[in-house]
């Protein structure tokens, strides 16, 4: 009978202190080493926002470092006297219309890029990418002439169209990445079950694209909301102007009403902050999936 | 595995044909008639009735007063309607440039002397000499302002009806000066003495705030010529900016940086500079009349605005400030109505109303006598300085198409180097002089 002697249980050797410190897992890092740099970074990031709030909420001429007594005069001024109510509405129109148009067209284009093989597809993709390097200012004059022929100058439609066109290339590439991630077999199964291509797309593919749609839509909305140049050039009537142009009019050649400018800045920023707060999770998932896996 | 579908040849041909059709349709719409309102369009006198478009080159802050003037105009001329477009001051040049190339120019637009040469050189403006001489405005416009406008046009013609002028102003804190027992900084000697005495870095108190960022060159030139006493920008075909007296003056001026000014001043544009002065403990600020309302809000009763300091013998030398004006665009289809609006806006009542709101010096000589000018000390003193016989004005070459580039993008970073001690004032002025001499030579070749 052969007996084997079991080896003595291995006694773990404790690594030296320096090595322990080098290989310390994240969970064992003292909390202050995480929170201190984060706090400094947070402070660095938030101070400008505090400064905007301070100027917006303290009375004109005050040099106090706290917004007390609080006044909403600057908000009232920009909203009523400086027509920010009108600019806000116009910006909402432009932002939402750009979002809808960009998303719908990017879906169609992205589907074609993902599912169809056609001649010069790679060249087309390259052209889409290259179009991102063309600054909007370079195309101002031709765009102006085209919109003038179409009688779209001084119409929000001109800004919506221009914004959509500039958003489309990147949006199409992103959406096509998402669609490629949806197994083609699912669509085929839907066809076997009697769906036509559009119904299969609507019922099977579209629900899988939610993060991508949110990413592309929010990106289009925020870009259209913040963009200054097209609105400045294509719109003339004050009743048609958007928030970025309105903000710019608060700075004259030699005088700036800082209180009004800060209040206007908050009016301009709040919708974007709200949009990002609600969609942050989807946005990160969306860009990650569309860009990296695509 | 990802499958792809190749569309049938027939479908692809149909899609290709549709795409080609779209491209051709868009090309046709884009390349048809170039429409109206571009620089090449000669326009016409029109009926003198109907709607005209007016672009305000400082839209926003001045919108209310313009709307009042337009309402008064439409009351006087009920058959003319004015469409007001407020363009942000920082973007007005690009808006004009785009419209000159692409169409859509207004009938009337605000054009200051700082950009007049560039707009006029593109053939977009109607010369106004004969219209002015035959109008009620003849003899009522400030001669010096008219000279500035003519000079800035580049070819001796008058392209705008001047409406107002700004002027370099030395704003100082009367409360701090009184507490320190200092006289008003009316001379450069007193200015430098006050800057030193009011500086106490431990208490975050400074004597002066210098402009080191955007717009720094014009301000530095003002201080330089003011101290050197040189009264002309040109000596023949060569600029005087690198004259040894100017070099010495600039060296003295930039030596204030950090000694008597906050170190952050190296990035000061007018916004930061004015905000800093209005909310801190800084004795003096050089800026134009445009910030008067901001100071009044923040420091009411604790400041004064006086023209730039004089030399010890009482001579004041200052550089020309931009003169704002109204231009009639060549492409206007209704020049008769547009001219009526310009005449009305530059008339005594309207010009007075506008300048009182802006706190600037009226171009209409009758408006300049109005009571509000006499009661607004900075404006009154600026008007006296501009019109006075003891003030020498060095005319900056606004007529050079390259002036804006040379005096801004090309040299503002270099001026920051001078402030930081990385370049000498002499080298800086020498480079600036070379660029200006070349720009002048190029301009002369074409005129």
Automatic annotation (TrEMBL), chain A:
<dbReference type="Pfam" id="PF00528">
    <property type="entry name" value="BPD_transp_1"/>
</dbReference>
<dbReference type="InterPro" id="IPR050901">
    <property type="entry name" value="BP-dep_ABC_trans_perm"/>
</dbReference>
<keyword id="KW-0812">Transmembrane</keyword>
<feature type="transmembrane region" description="Helical">
    <location>
        <begin position="125"/>
        <end position="147"/>
    </location>
</feature>
<keyword id="KW-0813">Transport</keyword>
<feature type="transmembrane region" description="Helical">
    <location>
        <begin position="92"/>
        <end position="113"/>
    </location>
</feature>
<feature type="transmembrane region" description="Helical">
    <location>
        <begin position="212"/>
        <end position="236"/>
    </location>
</feature>
<protein>
    <submittedName>
        <fullName>Transporter</fullName>
    </submittedName>
</protein>
<keyword id="KW-0472">Membrane</keyword>
<dbReference type="GO" id="GO:0055085">
    <property type="term" value="P:transmembrane transport"/>
</dbReference>
<dbReference type="InterPro" id="IPR000515">
    <property type="entry name" value="MetI-like"/>
</dbReference>
<keyword id="KW-1003">Cell membrane</keyword>
<feature type="transmembrane region" description="Helical">
    <location>
        <begin position="256"/>
        <end position="279"/>
    </location>
</feature>
<keyword id="KW-1133">Transmembrane helix</keyword>
<feature type="domain" description="ABC transmembrane type-1">
    <location>
        <begin position="88"/>
        <end position="279"/>
    </location>
</feature>
<feature type="transmembrane region" description="Helical">
    <location>
        <begin position="153"/>
        <end position="175"/>
    </location>
</feature>
<comment type="similarity">
    <text>Belongs to the binding-protein-dependent transport system permease family.</text>
</comment>
<feature type="transmembrane region" description="Helical">
    <location>
        <begin position="34"/>
        <end position="57"/>
    </location>
</feature>
<dbReference type="InterPro" id="IPR035906">
    <property type="entry name" value="MetI-like_sf"/>
</dbReference>
<dbReference type="GO" id="GO:0005886">
    <property type="term" value="C:plasma membrane"/>
</dbReference>
TrEMBL record, chain B:
<dbReference type="InterPro" id="IPR050490">
    <property type="entry name" value="Bact_solute-bd_prot1"/>
</dbReference>
<keyword id="KW-0472">Membrane</keyword>
<protein>
    <submittedName>
        <fullName>Sugar-binding protein</fullName>
    </submittedName>
</protein>
<keyword id="KW-0732">Signal</keyword>
<keyword id="KW-0564">Palmitate</keyword>
<dbReference type="Pfam" id="PF01547">
    <property type="entry name" value="SBP_bac_1"/>
</dbReference>
<keyword id="KW-1003">Cell membrane</keyword>
<dbReference type="InterPro" id="IPR006059">
    <property type="entry name" value="SBP"/>
</dbReference>
<keyword id="KW-0449">Lipoprotein</keyword>
<feature type="signal peptide">
    <location>
        <begin position="1"/>
        <end position="30"/>
    </location>
</feature>
């Amino acid at each position: 009978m052969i007996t084997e002697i079991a080896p003595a249980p291995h006694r773990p050797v404790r690594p030296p202190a320096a090595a322990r410190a080098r290989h310390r897992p994240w969970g064992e890092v003292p909390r202050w080493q995480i929170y201190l740099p984060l706090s400094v970074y947070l402070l660095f990031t938030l101070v400008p926002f505090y400064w905007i709030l301070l100027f917006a909420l303290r009375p004109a001429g005050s040099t106090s470092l706290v917004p007390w007594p609080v006044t909403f005069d600057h908000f009232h001024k920009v909203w009523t006297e400086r027509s920010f109510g009108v600019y806000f509405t116009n910006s909402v129109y432009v932002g939402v219309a750009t979002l809808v148009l960009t998303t719908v067209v990017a879906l169609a284009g992205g589907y074609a890029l993902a599912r169809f093989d056609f001649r010069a597809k790679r060249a087309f993709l390259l052209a889409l990418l290259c179009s991102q390097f063309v600054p909007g200012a370079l195309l101002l004059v031709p765009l102006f002439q085209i919109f003038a022929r179409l009688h779209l100058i001084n119409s929000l439609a001109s800004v919506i169209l221009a914004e959509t066109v500039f958003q489309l290339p990147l949006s199409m590439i992103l959406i096509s990445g998402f669609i490629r991630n949806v197994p083609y077999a699912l669509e085929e199964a839907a066809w076997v079950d009697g769906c036509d291509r559009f119904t299969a797309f609507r019922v099977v593919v579209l629900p899988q694209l939610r993060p991508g749609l949110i990413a592309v839509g929010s990106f289009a909305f925020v870009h259209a909301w913040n963009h200054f140049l097209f609105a400045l050039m294509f719109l003339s009537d004050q009743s048609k102007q958007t928030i970025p142009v309105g903000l710019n009019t608060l700075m004259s050649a030699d005088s700036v009403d800082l209180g009004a400018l800060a209040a206007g800045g908050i009016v301009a920023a709040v919708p974007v902050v709200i949009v990002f707060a609600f969609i942050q999770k989807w946005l990160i998932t969306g860009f990650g999936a569309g860009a990296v896996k695509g | 595995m990802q499958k792809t579908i190749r569309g049938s040849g027939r479908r692809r041909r149909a899609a290709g044909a549709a795409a080609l059709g779209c491209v051709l349709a868009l090309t046709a719409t884009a390349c048809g008639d170039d429409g109206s309102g571009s620089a090449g369009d000669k326009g016409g006198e029109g009926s003198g009735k109907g709607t005209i478009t007016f672009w305000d080159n400082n839209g926003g802050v001045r919108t209310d007063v313009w709307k009042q003037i337009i309402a008064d105009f439409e009351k006087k001329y009920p058959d003319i309607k004015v469409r007001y477009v407020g363009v942000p001051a920082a973007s007005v040049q690009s808006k004009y440039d785009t419209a000159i190339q692409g169409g859509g120019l207004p009938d009337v637009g605000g054009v200051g002397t700082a950009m007049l040469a560039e707009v006029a050189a593109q053939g977009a403006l109607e010369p106004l000499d004969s219209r002015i001489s035959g109008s009620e405005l003849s003899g009522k416009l400030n001669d010096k302002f008219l000279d500035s406008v003519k000079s800035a046009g580049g070819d001796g013609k008058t392209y705008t009806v001047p409406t107002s002028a700004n002027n370099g102003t030395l704003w100082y804190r009367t409360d701090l000066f009184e507490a320190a027992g200092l006289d008003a900084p009316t001379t450069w000697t007193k200015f430098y003495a006050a800057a030193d005495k009011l500086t106490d870095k431990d208490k975050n108190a400074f004597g002066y705030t210098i402009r080191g960022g955007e717009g720094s060159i014009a301000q530095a030139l003002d201080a330089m010529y003011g101290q050197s006493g040189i009264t002309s920008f040109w000596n023949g075909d060569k600029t005087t900016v690198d004259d040894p007296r100017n070099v010495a003056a600039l060296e003295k001026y930039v030596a204030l940086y950090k000694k008597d000014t906050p170190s952050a001043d190296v990035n000061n544009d007018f916004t930061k500079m004015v905000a800093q002065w209005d909310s801190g403990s800084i004795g003096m600020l050089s800026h134009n009349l445009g910030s008067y309302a901001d100071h009044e809000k923040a420091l009411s009763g604790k400041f004064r605005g006086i023209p730039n300091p004089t030399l010890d013998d009482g001579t004041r030398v200052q550089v020309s400030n931009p003169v704002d004006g109204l231009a009639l665009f060549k492409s206007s289809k209704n020049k008769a109505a547009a001219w009526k609006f310009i005449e009305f806006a530059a008339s005594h009542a309207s010009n007075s109303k506008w300048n009182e709101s802006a706190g600037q010096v009226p171009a209409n000589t009758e408006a300049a006598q109005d009571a509000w000018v006499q009661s607004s000390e900075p404006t009154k003193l600026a008007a006296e300085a501009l019109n006075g016989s003891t003030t020498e004005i060095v005319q900056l070459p606004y007529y050079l198409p390259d002036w804006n580039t040379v005096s801004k993008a090309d040299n503002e970073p270099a001026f920051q180097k001078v402030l930081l001690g990385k370049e000498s004032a002499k080298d800086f002025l020498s480079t600036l002089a070379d660029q200006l001499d070349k720009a002048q030579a190029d301009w002369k070749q074409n005129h």
